Amino acid sequence: MYAFTYERPTSEADALRLAQAGARPLAGGQTLLASMKLRLAAPEQIVDLGAVPELKGIRRDGDALVIGAMTRHCDVAESAEARAAIPALAALAGGIGDKQVRARGTIGGSVANNDPAADYPAALLALGATVHTTARAIAADDFFQGLFATALEEGELITAVRFPIAAKAAYVKFAQPASLFALIGVFVAQTAQGVRVAVTGGGNGVFRHQAMEKALDARFAPEAIAGVPTEEAGMSSDLHASSAYRAHLVGVMAQRAVARALA
């Protein structure tokens, strides 16, 4: 490690002031601390958001579920409110990493980091969620902008994520055994605006599968997307899986997700 200044504010206002002055936000630290140890990141000042009570909590708000940015994965997984409103979201949180990761990682940190194989971005995109920040509200369709890239600006902090409650939803992933990141993960949701299908783990970032959405709007059944192809060209290829295999997995995981949503 190296020398840096550590701040732990107890109010959102103080956290925002420090972030706007250039301090690097620290949520669960699952990515930032590892990056600092490898000298891939070297912030001079860190603002730990863990002591800001306004950023935590899960609540039902009409036809939506609102989750504070500093709410841990394990809290979402174990929340009776989340399980009742969007069971698929609670199940997704329960499948992130291992117990240690779920006990430290936060939804806001995951969303802000936008790892191309992370689980939460698929939930946000499929459910048509809204990311609330200290400055504005950003639709999930506009928030995720590619490999580790988001619409967040310097000094802007995520405060909460608002998830509309879907009629039916499910998430299924084919996990890399060591990290439990998704080689391919597919979140399917039947929403008031139609079916939305989001894929993570496939390429440079989460994306919607519009061909599958169209097919499932016509008939919400696994068989409806059995013949819907996924382009191999945009898929990643590495030591874990080839681009062709990932493209194939999209179809398999999507059909399983639809079947689970109907169960």
Automatic annotation (TrEMBL):
Enzyme Commission numbers on file: 1.2.99.2
Domain of life from the UniProt record: Bacteria
Q: Which GO terms describe its molecular function?
A: FAD binding; oxidoreductase activity
Q: Which SUPFAM superfamilies match?
A: CO dehydrogenase flavoprotein C-terminal domain-like (SSF55447), FAD-binding/transporter-associated domain-like (SSF56176)
Q: Which UniProt keywords apply?
A: FAD, Flavoprotein, Oxidoreductase
Start and end residues of each FAD-binding PCMH-type domain: 1-168
Q: Which residues form the signal peptide?
A: none
Which InterPro entries does the record cross-reference, listed alphabetically? Answer: CO_DH_flav_C, CO_DH_flav_C_dom_sf, Diverse_Substr_Oxidored, FAD-bd_PCMH, FAD-bd_PCMH-like_sf, FAD-bd_PCMH_sub1, FAD-bd_PCMH_sub2, Mopterin_DH_FAD-bd
The record's annotation in PANTHER family points to: XANTHINE DEHYDROGENASE SUBUNIT C-RELATED
Q: What is this protein called?
A: Carbon-monoxide dehydrogenase (Acceptor)
Species of provenance: Alicycliphilus denitrificans (strain DSM 14773 / CIP 107495 / K601)
